[in-house]
Amino acid sequence: MDAKTQGLLKALKDPGRDQAALEAIEGLLEESRAALTSAADPKTLLELSELLETWAKGASNELAARALLPAAELARDGGDKAGAAEAYRRLGELRAKSLGDPDGAIDAFEAAIRTSPSVETIGRLIDLYTLRGGEGDAEKASSWEKRRSLLAGVLVPEDTQWVTARAELVRAGAEAEVTA
């Protein structure tokens, strides 16, 4: 293990959870990323990923989101698809619920699905597209619903009334959460 990777491990184990600590970690990670991926040492990649996730748990929401993305990427590069997908899902939830960033949440959930598809993650993505309600989002939600159903082994109705009814239910649920 090279000195930069050892420095990164040391920084991740430091109890500091502030902007300066994350910037130091990001700098060390950027400097050592090429060496880490070219060395193809899955054990080190996974250790770094786990340390980044642990670091994120004690940080503010914004800093945690910045730490979870490289954690997911390192897990993916280390061959841990389930760990990468979970980090992407955590990032998606954090962006959707705590940071009010539906676009970032959608990106994170799509990355999780590309890494390791799950019915639950696809469902969360459908909900976000439905809530966002932008141009083309209904079609994307419908397309993802078909993929989720295929993954779950269930047939999906082809009519658009079903998609519209689902959208209304999701919006009603979101409004109920806001008023509660």
Characteristics:
elongated, single chain, 180 residues, mainly alpha
Structure description:
This protein is mainly alpha-helical and 180 residues long. It has helices spanning 3-13, 19-39, 42-57, 61-77, 81-98, 102-115, 119-132, 137-152, 160-179. α1 runs parallel beside α3 (42-57) and α5 (81-98) runs antiparallel to α6. The mean pLDDT is 79.
Principal-axis shape equals: elongated
The main sheet comes to: none
Query: Strand content of the residues, in percent?
Result: under 5%
- Radius of gyration over C-alpha positions, nearest whole angstrom: 19 Å
Order of helices and strands: HHHHHHHHH
- Count up the helices: 9
Low confidence ranges: none
What is the arithmetic mean of pLDDT?
79
Which structural category fits the helices and strands?
A: mainly alpha
Strand segment tally? 0
Gap between N and C termini: 52 Å
User: Share of helix among residues?
Assistant: over 70%
Helix and strand arrangement:
Elements: H1 3-13, H2 19-39, H3 42-57, H4 61-77, H5 81-98, H6 102-115, H7 119-132, H8 137-152, H9 160-179
Helix pairs in contact: 1-2, 1-3, 2-4, 3-4, 4-5, 5-6, 6-7, 7-8
